[in-house]
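User: Second chain of the day. Same drill as before.
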Amino acid sequence: MTDTWWLNPCKAIDASAHEQALARQQQLTKPAGSLGQLEALAVQLAGLQGRLKPSVDQLWIAIFAGDHGVVAEGVSAFPQEVTGQMLHNFVTGGAAISVLARQLDAQLEVVDLGTVTPSLDLPGVRHLNIGAGTANFVNGPAMTEAQGRLALQAGRDSARRALDSGAQLFIGGEMGIGNTTAASALACALLDCRVSDLTGPGTGLNAQGVSHKVAVIERALALHAGQRHDALRSLFNLGGFEIAALVGAYLACAQEGIVVLVDGFICTVAALVATRLNPACRAWLVFGHRGAEPGHRHVLQSLDAEPLLELGLRLGEGSGAALAVPLVRLACALHGQMATFAEAAVADRPA
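Assistant: Same format as last time:
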């Protein structure tokens, strides 16, 4: 197993398109910088898409699901069966991301990397069966290298399907009871942060539950301390199948030239891993929102990321990123459709 495709070069930014878009922003009928973050976003997208007037009409949303062995330690307020039940909810249209995908006219795919529910076979779900969830990482690695590589490849495959569909924007979402524990452990390993700073209630733990979760993560970090600065090993030791798939998807999108809109805490931790594996992918990541999970703020800061929204969200599923899509589309519309001072015969500065 020597293939390290994730190290392949990311698509280069089109410097000419970026500069032309920046110049256009200075000519539009508004005070320079008055649309703030939306101006910078439009210019960034122009450079990434290699066109003066970018667009994100074609949207691909991939939900990656997987179960977590660490749930045996009592770190979640919900039973593990919920993961499989939510897969059904996704494809029958009842989940939040299902509603958002319809509203945004997005293509939605659901990928089950491996759940504990036996013989799960749902129409509309890609069941990959990498394992019956990960192993309990307080006792050993969460996944084998072979499993980890399969999960990374699953994300890459989704990105390639997005490319084939003509997608201009990729959103990855996740589902997996226990995955905030995995994400917190993984972030702590890579950022050398105190566990208590990066660990929150997840799906609804009380203060005692959060304290227990912290203790479980500390045990895992102690066990895997020898590899904590190795991003790939830490992913396999502490992550989840769905987190690894997100990592693979983000890296493949950057290599293929698809802009990524990153969702909440777990997806942002996947983005952190992706940038550690291949730093050039960072340019292709736009961050949708800052969520309520306390660790999210820390990880965003480590990535020098300024999200578009802050609404107190903690749902996951790609929902926060999906909610930011209208802003991204409006940023493109403003950039592409506003008149320049010359076109509108408006004086752009005092005579």
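The chain has one domain: 59-330.

User: Great, on to the next one.
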